[in-house]
Protein 1
Amino acid sequence: MANTTTQTGHDTPTTAMQSGPKDSIPVSASKRCRQFFWRSWAIQDSWNYERQMNMGFLYGIAPTIDRLYPDENDPQQVEKRKEAYKRHMAFYNCTPQTSAFVLGLSSSMEEEYACDPEHFDPETINAVKTSLMGPLSGIGDSFFQGTIRVIAFGLGASLAAQGSFLGPILAMVISAAFSIPITYYCGKFGYEMGNSYLERLQHGAMEKVMYACGIVGLMAIGGMVATMVDITTPATFASGTLELQSVLDQIFPQMLSIAAVMVMYGLIKKNVKTGWLLVICILGGILLSACGVLA
Amino acid sequence: MNTFGMAVLIGLVGIFCILDSRLLGRLNFEQPLITSAIVGLLLGNPTAGLASGATIELMSMGLVQVGAAVPPDMCMAGIIATAFAILTSADPQTAVAIAVPIAVLGQLLGVLFRTVIAGLGHAADAAIDEGEFKKVTNYHIVWGTVLYSLMYFIPIFLAIYLGTGFVQNLVDAIPAWFTNGLDFAAKLLTAYGLALLLSMMMNKGMMAFFLVGFFVCAYGGLSVTAISIFGVLVAIILTTLRFGKDSRPALGSDEDHDSLEDDD
């Protein structure tokens, strides 16, 4: 086995695969960190409304997966690789800079799973991702967009208004000075933390992790439904004197938002095709809005 | 320099602007302060570029794109408005007046584009099934880059090439019901994305936690960060109660990881 690059020995996954040839490419710790760095910066490259940064995350973790299942001629490895690729196509959204942490942690979990597929539930990986993205984007967005951006560009704009080219330059320097080291160390610490935690995890402990991650993740999703969807109705009754929205708000706030999510959830559970759901969202959305039912 | 050449140049500034948040993790190089200065340099009037940049920057300071919310696109508007200000010798204040309708148009385009581009994800799903792994990552890094670049280049190019009057007419011609409808469709798509996430995370008997998260935020007005912190604490308490005191904190709850207490 050529993998002697990490202290922990987690980079020796192909030993778990009896039939796999031992030609997996060793990777240095610094190359891995560089990959986390650039790929978490590129995480928004295909941002969309449906699953947001899902392909960006997959792009970030793809080198790790490819290193774990390198043999394209071994059907077993190809199957494992497809599974892993599909796993990381799930909804994801997080500040690019702090995403490096999730990328590092998930990569070390993928390695752990490849080493020990018997005792490691791969669902844990997505559970961890989901439970981390809420707090990390909360911290990341408020730090980078709320704090650093406002300071850097407030300062820069006041200099530029006096006619100094130092304004835009200073704003760029301040932004980069925080973004670069934070992204780099997020990736590095995420990967290392994954290793040190996973080493300690007994096989039975997985249930515990799933349970705890489920709680954090579901509570965060609940919070996102309450704060990010924001569906209301402009409908009124009794010739405009009774607003339906205020009646609904008296029962409980954001009622229509959670109703929309639960309807979608029900349709997904009924295995309605994604294409149809997208059509329902876009055409149905325009129709409902034009009729003045929802907004 | 003719209008065509200038339109291409300014369009390239647009590509620089959009790729900042696509490939550089949003280093804020997309902000009007920076892009207006570049437009000023390219059009040979750096002072006017700086002045427009400062004005538009202060105007758009409060607009932050977080998560799925798309505010009026001041990044695109800043570039076009600055170019118009310099080309028509208008003052920065006029440039700002031009910037607002363009920003709304840019926002509409952004919503539409980010809805349509979801198709790339489905193409990638299919490519995984076929085992074409290189193709999968290319959908992200190649197609994503190209399409987002075009999304900025084309409208900026057309706006400069065809002129202010045309932009204003276009904005006026779009019916309000269509704009509102797209806004609402974007909300439904967000609901769909969250429902996907929910169906992935939901296990038996876990519904209550989702509802706790929802109601605490809906009634209490808490942010997602706040509810996540409570979630971590609830998870620690319940995991301890359910599995005994020896339980290690969950992977997700690394906030309470203390490196000094590692050796137990």
Note: Chain A touches chain B through 133 residues (CB under 8 Å).
Protein 2
Amino acid sequence: MSSVLMVGIDCSECGDRAIAYAVDQAKRSNSKLFIAHVIEWSPFSFSTVQENFERHKRREEELKRANSEVIDPVVNKLKEKGLDVEGLVRHGNVADTLHELAIENGVTNIILGRQGTSKLKKHVFGSVGSQLVQAAECPVTVVP
Amino acid sequence: MLKLRVGITTLIGLFASFSAFAENGIDERINLAIKPFADAVAGAVFSSFPVAGVQIPFVLVWLIVAATIFTFYFKFINLRAFKHGFELVRGDYHDPKAAGEVTHFQALATALSGTVGLGNIAGVAVAVSLGGPGATFWMILAGFLGMSSKFTECTLGVKYRNELPDGTVSGGPMYYLTKGLAEKGTNFARLGKVLAVMFAIFCVGGSFGGGNMFQANQSFSQLVNVTGGDASWLADKGWLFGLVIAALVGLVIMGGIKGIARVTSKIVPFMAIVYVLAGLAIILMNIKLVPSAFGAIFNGAFTAEGIGGGVIGVLFQGFKRAAFSNEAGVGSAAIAHSAVKTNRPVTEGFVALYEPFVDTIVVCTITALVIIITGTWDPSVDPSAGVQLTSRAFESAFSWFPYVLTIAVLLFAFSTMISWSYYGLKSWTFLFGENKLTDASYKILFLFFVVIGSSMQLGSVIDFSDAMIFAMAFPNLLGCYFLLPMVKKELDEYWADYKSGKLVKTRLS
């Protein structure tokens, strides 16, 4: 069974070690690699009327920015190294959405850096890594 | 940004000088100047006919009849779609690819924050006082029927909204009256344009009146009440309060300082929950009195002992309160709900059912029960002092509640003003075109009315405010009647899909 890897990153420079680890794994097992970025968003947030009307436009802007500033630099760099790499961007709760993306794309192993979450959130909700480790349906690797 | 700051400072300066005059009797002169116009308009909108000795405004009949007809036409969709509406709000049918767009929950929450407000708190006290506990029954009934009106107008709002090339969305009665009626032929298209313009004009009026002046005035009144009534330092400083609120509102709508609106939109639901919990607590603490309270409600609804106007009078107070509070049939909610991301317009109609449910059947009823149980209803109440009555009712159980209520009232008023400023802006630009000048002119006028609303003795201006909001129901519901077949088609198609299991139920992460 071929493996499919997915690295979750917060920004283009974050998770360098996670990406390096994933690239290493991908090369060894000749796997497809996904680079995933989740834009924090909740379907249950509260907003004003104006924000709602502008939401679609904002969303497009956010997706464009995420792609150009976070995903594309990484994906392009890795493509140059000859890897089968694809970028993924989606809005949502980080841990849940990474998991969702993993299921949709048949990912066999999720790879994350350790730093991603803010300190406060980590104490209250647990870091993204620990949430995923508990809830994911596939192995999760947290790279320190 | 600098230009904006300069602009706002100038405005505040102008308002300050105006208000300084207002202190010295100009407000009396303005009151006198506006009064005949305000009274004429209010008189026209609320023209009434006598039924069994009670003057019933035609517009109220218009609203209730429409709500009833819609309920039957859609075969009690308010009951049938209740569960599915909840599933939609919860996100059970959320499309993962649409993550990041406006969800049903967000559209509903936003719309609710615009309608939940002083009507639920102050207005109920007046209704129960003037109509007795029986008014609660008719209020719940009107809320129940009104769910169908909201269903209709919100489905239409989504179906006929405008999606601009830059990605922004615009929706509401202006659009479904023009686009929707145009689908029925050229004569209807002409009618649609007329109705849309009428609606836009009344909506602007409503946004200055009920959505603005009334909110400013009533929240100031509660603030004064809680800081010592007539002896309060604030007692004659309505203009100052108005300036502060205008500045805050101005920062949001003109300065683009979304932070304030964002903070408010997070606190408002919290305050609403606090209010509901406090009400439930009082009800539970007096659980032994609840059966007799319901007894009083049913008794009063059908026998109307001691109420002027008999059963009709009681009915009138209940219906009036529900109509004023949940705005079903007025069309403003259709604007708010039209922002949702969905391919099936009728889904937002289902979601909108929850608006009158939460607003009237839950929140208003809780307020009514608290007032009845604590026995604080007072038939001699002055309609503009409604909020004080509710305050007293809660205070009898929780002595600290008036302070919480004041904060809640201020927040509700603020969020209602923000919402209505948007409804009015959309109507204004519909009439005058969308450009920087029309945008700025409306917003400046809006802020101006915030200050006026807090400074003046409202009396006839309250009637004018309410009249404008109700006037919106004339073109809105007339258009809805003609557009009913469109809604029915959407509903039937969707319902068939739903029953046959074609719809994809996803788990919302």
Note: Chain B is about 75% helix and 0% strand.
Protein 3
Amino acid sequence: MFAGYVIDTNIHAAYLLQGYEADPLTKKYLAFYSKIPLSQRLVPDFIMNEFELFITQVAPAKYRMSGEQATSFDKAVTTYLRDIATSFTLLTTPLEAYKIAFSLYEQNTQHRHISFTDSLLVALAKQQDFLLLTKDRRLQTIAKELQVGYFDPKFAPGLQ
Amino acid sequence: MYKTVSITNKTYQELNTLSARLEKPKSQLIAELVRKLHKSMEGQEKQKLDAFNAKMQTLIAHIQLPRGTKVSTENIDEDFRVLKDTPGVF
């Protein structure tokens, strides 16, 4: 038994945009994601913030959606956001995780930049003993160094 | 690794009584209670997940992007750069 996976923004985004992403590795991440019980999908406040901004501002601009396309997209987005808020497990960030995140952020500034949001994500997983679900290879490398568990599709050959 | 939780005095007394009666450490009792609660929720969780997956797959299937659009969620951080050209954001 375990508390669950902290879900990165790239997983939420890939989930909603899955009809247009052909990458086979992403399909494996999503196959795994679709099997995680809703209450074991952990969504930190800062990820909710990043994902909402991405899906409501970045995606429509990047993919140049028409009015009609934006309407069907909004319907899926609104439903998904509501389900995150009501059925997933929302997390606030403890002060200790912020301190770990800032330390990570500083350590990685020079040789392999990671955003403060990504630093927070891996710091929260470390501090709260959560597993991590992200497609970000750099984040996985840092998670491995910090002995934070994460899903790796290489070790789940049956998923598709 | 151990963590601290705060519980009411009454709950603590009841836990203490159970611990003495069953001759088990309080931490073990809490672990067992959590395990049993988790087990009882599994069936409901599966139903909720199946309903959620079905609903979302229908909505996702209706998402239409411009013809020929190929999505990559490999570098979300980079994608945020699109906002610098969007009036009214930042």
Note: Chain A touches chain B through 47 residues (CB under 8 Å).
